[in-house]
């Protein structure tokens, strides 16, 4: 007979379950050679893994075995050093181990009353980042799920601030609000605009794909008061191109328009001393994002969203409800109130623990490694017959072509590479041309590993 507390009290069964799960987590976290793995068809998974949900349960032993032997191998390991597609992940050992602690501790990260200690630690990280980005001491924010939610939350705050200003100044709000960004801006900006039911006006980029202030100024001339936010990108996802943030920010400032910097992938590079000039102007931002799950060595999923004036985010995002009055009536720092969310995991803690453990110098050095490796492999690509760079890498993304190959050639090569469990490199495209792309995040990705991949392109 089952008792209601069978899953919760400490018994030999629950004890074994916890120990078995943590033992598996321990093994996975300490793999010397992470297997790359690959997806499986729905039909194969149906055959091998269905039927796990039953009235009586299959027991933790069987469930773990199913995960370890069938389900996990059907997921590509994004932390494999040969995972070079999209933006890989490379959580430090400290951060991924601490993620287990976050789960084990049942922390509610939404309010100060409930999660003060966790919120304090997360804020230590956010304040350090804000300082690195040149933002004033009052800047602050919250870790949200990802860059998409970070951008959306920042833009919602921007529109709210614009609405309030218009009201204060006795102006009508425009029939359609407009966001200005470059055509190279991340797809999440268009997605945010769709959710917010606002328009996007794109400004021209230069021959290197960079957005400059003069192009933004021209678009602003066309749209006037309808524009509530200008977005610059601190490292595009496809190429790692950093806009001319200083001139874009200056124009936004001059016109009194909210300036948002989307640095989900690339802004981490600003932590490297020699790269700081590339990001000049970030200090003008009203809001910025950077994803720790990309180039700050934290596990999925975390985006650091930072506001110059967090009070503006509070007025845009604080949810009002009778059962929440006890929280919202106080001057406490409640992370829930700064973005589109209510209940939240203290998802900044894994990064806090790793940063506290290793120190900021280690972070700078690990990011710099990726930038240096990108330059080295770019030189190697240029020196090889039949290969050419599409553009010099600015951060840690290297885009190149194999002369004479069609998309079908790239795709066949890419599938073979994954099939052989060698690496995960999917084709991308640029101006209609299919290209190859290495996105380098992991310090375990070596020059030798990359040249071995190039060797297969002969
Ligand atoms: C990855 C990325 C995003 C989206 O972030 P998610 O965490 O995937 O939601 C937004 N902007 C840029 C520039 C990115 O590289």
TrEMBL record:
SUPFAM superfamilies: PLP-dependent transferases (SSF53383). Keywords: Decarboxylase, Lyase, Pyridoxal phosphate. InterPro entries: Aromatic_deC (IPR010977), PyrdxlP-dep_de-COase (IPR002129), PyrdxlP-dep_Trfase (IPR015424), PyrdxlP-dep_Trfase_major (IPR015421), PyrdxlP-dep_Trfase_small (IPR015422), Pyridoxal-P_BS (IPR021115). Gene3D superfamilies: Aspartate Aminotransferase, domain 1, Type I PLP-dependent aspartate aminotransferase-like (Major domain). Its EC number is 4.1.1.86. The modification N6-(pyridoxal phosphate)lysine is found at residue 294. Its cofactor is pyridoxal 5'-phosphate. One of its GO terms (molecular function) is aromatic-L-amino-acid decarboxylase activity. It is an enzyme of class 4 (lyase). It comes from the Bacteria. GO terms for biological process: carboxylic acid metabolic process. Belongs to the group II decarboxylase family. This is L-2,4-diaminobutyrate decarboxylase. The lineage of its organism: Bacteria, Bacillati, Actinomycetota, Actinomycetes, Micrococcales.
């Amino acid at each position: 007979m089952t008792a209601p507390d069978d899953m919760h009290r400490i018994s030999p069964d629950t004890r074994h379950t916890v120990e078995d799960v943590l033992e598996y987590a321990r093994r996975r976290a300490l793999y010397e050679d992470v297997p790359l793995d690959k997806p499986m068809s729905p039909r194969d998974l149906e055959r091998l893994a269905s039927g796990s949900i039953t009235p009586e349960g299959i027991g933790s032993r069987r469930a773990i075995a199913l995960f370890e032997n069938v389900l996990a191998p059907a997921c590509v390991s994004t932390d494999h050093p040969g995972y070079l597609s999209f933006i890989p992940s490379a959580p430090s050992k400290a951060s991924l181990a601490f993620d287990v602690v976050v789960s084990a501790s049942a922390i509610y990260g939404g309010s100060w009353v409930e999660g003060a200690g966790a919120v304090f630690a997360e804020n230590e990280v956010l304040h350090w980042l804000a300082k690195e980005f040149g933002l004033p001491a009052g800047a602050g924010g919250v870790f949200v799920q990802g860059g998409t939610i970070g951008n959306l939350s920042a833009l919602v705050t921007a529109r709210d601030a614009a609405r309030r200003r218009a009201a204060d100044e006795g102006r009508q709000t425009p029939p359609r609000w407009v966001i200005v960004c470059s055509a190279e801006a991340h797809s999440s900006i268009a997605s945010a605009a769709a959710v917010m039911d606002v328009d996007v006006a794109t400004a021209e980029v230069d021959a290197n794909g960079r957005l400059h202030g003069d192009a933004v100024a021209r678009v602003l001339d066309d749209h006037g008061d309808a524009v509530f936010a200008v977005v610059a990108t601190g490292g595009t996802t496809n190429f790692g191109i950093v806009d001319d943030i200083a001139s874009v920010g200056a124009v936004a400032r001059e016109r009194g328009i909210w300036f948002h910097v989307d640095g989900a992938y690339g802004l981490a590079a600003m932590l490297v001393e020699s790269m700081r000039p590339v990001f000049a102007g970030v200090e003008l931002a009203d809001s910025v994002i950077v994803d720790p799950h990309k180039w700050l060595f934290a596990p999925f999923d975390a985006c650091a969203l930072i506001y110059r004036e967090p009070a503006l985010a509070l007025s845009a995002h604080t949810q009002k409800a009778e059962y929440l009055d006890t929280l919202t009536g106080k001057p406490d720092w409640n992370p829930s109130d700064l973005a589109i969310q209510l209940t939240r995991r203290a998802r900044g803690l894994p990064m806090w623990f790793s940063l506290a453990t290793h120190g900021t110098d280690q972070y700078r050095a690990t990011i710099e490694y990726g930038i240096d490796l990108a330059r080295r492999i770019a030189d190697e690509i240029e020196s090889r017959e039949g290969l050419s760079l599409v553009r010099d890498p600015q951060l840690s993304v290297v885009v190149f072509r194999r002369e004479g190959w069609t998309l079908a050639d790239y795709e066949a090569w890419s599938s073979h590479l994954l099939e052989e469990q060698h690496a995960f490199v999917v084709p991308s495209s640029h101006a209609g041309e299919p290209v190859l792309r290495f996105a380098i995040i992991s310090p375990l990705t070596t020059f030798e590993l990359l040249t071995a991949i190039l060797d297969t392109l002969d």
